Amino acid sequence: QRIECDLLATQVACMTNLASNYLNAGVEAKRYGTAHASIVPYQAFQTRDGSYITIAGNNNAQFAALCDRLDLQQLVTDQRYTNNGDRVTNRVQLISELSERFAEKDSKDWLERFEGCAFPYARINSLSQAFSDPQVVHKDMVKTVHHPVTGDVKVVGPAVQFSESENKVRGPPPLLGEHTRTVLTELLSYSHAQVTEFEQQGIIQCAPQ
Fold first, then answer.
1. Pick from 57, 45, 47, 177: which is nearest to 105 by CA?
2. Helix (H) and strand (E) counts for the chain?
3. For the whole model, what pTM was predicted?
4. Any bridge partners for residue 131, and if so which?
5. Distance (Å, whole) CA 53 – CA 47
6. Which residues contact 56 (CB under 8 A, 6 or more apart)?
7. pLDDT at 208
8. Is 80 strand, coil or helix?
9. pLDDT at res. 61
């Protein structure tokens, strides 16, 4: 079978709830930054050290657990935030209260307090933090390959691993036109003479052999 997967279709499919609101109710999406259009709280919050933590209170139980870890138990019984619909309606007030609380501690402090909690949360990492993350290191995500021009280079390895077959980095980033001849001759059945003619006419570019 022919498998077609393009970037446009992928991004359209990722709109999920925004697409449903538009297609079924004619509601145009608004810009909420990191926030969710129909779930509150569900966004990134800046902490005292200037970094960010993203959290999700997907339902009443998770919202209550978040408030408990933040020592804001009074928000759970606040009539403005009784359910998600109320929290969406009163988004500005609730996010303001949560933002003030998050700003009182560093991300490290909040991450320690959230350990084992019932709601999703994560620090928004810098690249250095991401690549030094213990799980990223454990999964051996960074691979070193030899490049014929620049020497050894580091690349990110494949995200998917299989139990019965190998998925690995097969080579360094190619030079411009490095595989042009291979694709045209081996996959598209052009002769080497034709490829040379194309190159001489400026139709294609091949890397030096």
1. 47
2. 10, 5
3. 0.78
4. none
5. 7
6. 36, 39, 41, 42, 62, 119, 120, 121
7. 82
8. helix
9. 97
Q: Is residue 50 part of a domain?
A: yes
Q: What is the pLDDT of residue 17?
A: 86
Render pLDDT for 52-79 as a digit per residue (tens, 0 to 9): 999 999 999 999 999 999 999 999 999 9
Can you read off the two tokens belonging to residue 64? 């209550």
Alpha-helical (H) ranges within the chain are 7-13, 16-25, 60-69, 84-89, 91-102, 107-114, 127-131, 134-138, 180-182, 192-200
pLDDT value for 3: 86
CA 62 to CA 57: how far, in whole Å? 5
Which positions of the chain have pLDDT values less than 50? Answer: none
Closest by CA position to 45, among listed 109, 113, 121, 116 = 121
Q: Is residue 150 part of a domain?
A: no
The single residue listed with the structure tokens 């051996």 is 140
| Domain boundaries, position 57 | 34-124
Q: What is the CATH number of the domain that holds 45?
A: 3.30.1540.10
pLDDT at residue 82 in the model: 97
- pLDDT at residue 27, as a whole number: 92
The encoded tokens of residue 73 equal 């138990």
38 in a structural domain: yes
66 inside domain: yes
Counting the structural domains of the chain, the total is 1
Structure tokens at 66: 């978040």
Helices marked H in 39-186: 60-69, 84-89, 91-102, 107-114, 127-131, 134-138, 180-182
